[in-house]
Amino acid sequence: MSDKISAVKRGVWGSKFAFVLAAAGSAVGLGNIWKFPYITGVNGGGAFVLVYLLSVVLVGLPILMAEILLGKSAHRDPVGTFKVLSNGSKGWMLVGWLGVIAGFVILSFYSVVAGWAMNYLFKSIIHPFTGLDPKSVSEMFSHLAADPKTEIIWHFVFMFLTVIIVIGGVKSGLEKWSKILMPLLFLILLFMVGYGMTTTGFSKGLEFLFKPDFSKLTPKSILEALGHAFFTLSLGMGAMITYGSYLKNEDDIVGPAIWIAVLDTVIALLAGIAIFSIVFSFNLKPGAGPGLVFQTLPVIFAKIKFGMVLSSLFFLLLTFAALTSAISLLEVVVAYFVDEMNVNRKIATPVIGLIIFFLGVPSAIWDNFFGAMDSLSTNFLLPTGGFFIAIFAGYRLKEEIKKINFSKYGNWLYIGWNFTIRYLSPILVLIILLNSLGIIKVI
Ligand code: PHE
């Protein structure tokens, strides 16, 4: 299929801005607002944050560029991308399949958490948090966590919404809403940080986040920081390959990749600052686990004027941020069945959605299952996928790399990226994976 025909058939982004927005929509999600603060709390703060930031710069950003480049060069779903660019090598296609599997696994537990956010949106409207003390706010989350039926219902509602959007045009509706809702989410977060600044725990929160205590670093926490860099930037499973595949051949990829990584990181750090200010002001536990955001922010919503409006808005926006990420997860799986297996999109999407719903049910019931799914995908599937994507881009895409417009940014960027993608990123990923498995001992 020639490029032109395929572009007309598959569609292209309306503008460069539309691409950045959609890709940032995929990157910014529960990973930033729910997961980053909670795993930072569990892993002891500053040192973990530092490893995460280093992972974003040294591994995440280069691989983000590689994924967009892969998609843009092939104009196909991730499996098709590897097929086209490797001349049909089954081994390389396996990397695409790994991504499809990761899509199933991640969305199954992601949707359960998004269901919690929707439940809190519902609560904000029906029983506002007004007047509740921190202990009662905490208990509210424990009640939800002990009530799988409610969790499963909301998980279903969220999957249902995701399926509806993926069936009917990801582009028009979602692009339009993203333009309004993503900046709004940013504003609310800024407000929460502003509020955090007035609380007694603000400086302690900052210290917890940014003052590294290296004695807290373990091989497992280093792997988690690296895995989270992949998770939060939607890397290692083909989501960014898929979004890149809707770019035009002449489109720039360097600028957008930097924008996406910066936006994603800033939003995570803002969420962290807001949440840890509250944690330290009200003597809550930083290591509370997956419930952290649900046990902290409502404490503020309960105290302030218009708290009900603000909490409804916050959980609405969190749900929306989760949706823009969930559709990119589902899109990877759907694109594979549509592009490679010739299944009709209208059939593939609901069937896959239903399978993912069932796969998520045990995550709603058992914490351990939830943890295992998260850890399998974040700490194993994504870094492994990312490793092979880096190798493929660095060693097999020489012609395509020449076409990237690095000159706009200076030759140093080309040299730096080439070195990182070929040597630094894959070696770092390999060392961290082997170190956490105990096969080699670095730390
Ligand atoms: N990046 C998303 C988030 O932070 C999650 C995600 C992971 C989306 C992998 C797509 C692919 O919430």
Task: Please tell me about this protein's structure.
There is one protein chain. By secondary structure, this protein is mainly alpha-helical. The protein has one domain: Amino acid/polyamine transporter I (Up-down Bundle), CATH 1.20.1740.10. 79% of the residues lie in helices and 0% in strands. The chain contains 19 helices and no strands. Helix 2 (16-27) packs parallel to helix 13 (254-281), helix 2 packs across helix 15 and helix 13 crosses helix 14. Phenylalanine (PHE) binds at residues 26-27, 29-32, 106, 231-232, 234, 237, 239, 325, 328-329.
Task: Summarize, please.
This protein has 443 residues and is mainly α.
Bound molecules: phenylalanine
Element order: H for helix, E for strand: HHHHHHHHHHHHHHHHHHH
State the helical fraction. Answer: over 70%
CATH class: Mainly Alpha
How large is the share of residues in beta strands? under 5%
Structural class: mainly alpha
Instruction: Find the CATH superfamily.
Output: Amino acid/polyamine transporter I
C-alpha Rg (nearest Å): 21 Å
Architecture in CATH? Answer: Up-down Bundle
* Major sheet description: none
CA-CA gap between termini? 50 Å
The count of helical stretches stands at 19
Mean pLDDT: 91
- Give the tally of structural domains: 1
**What is the molecular shape?**
globular
Poorly predicted spans: 1-5
- Count the E strands: 0
CATH topology value: Amino acid/polyamine transporter I
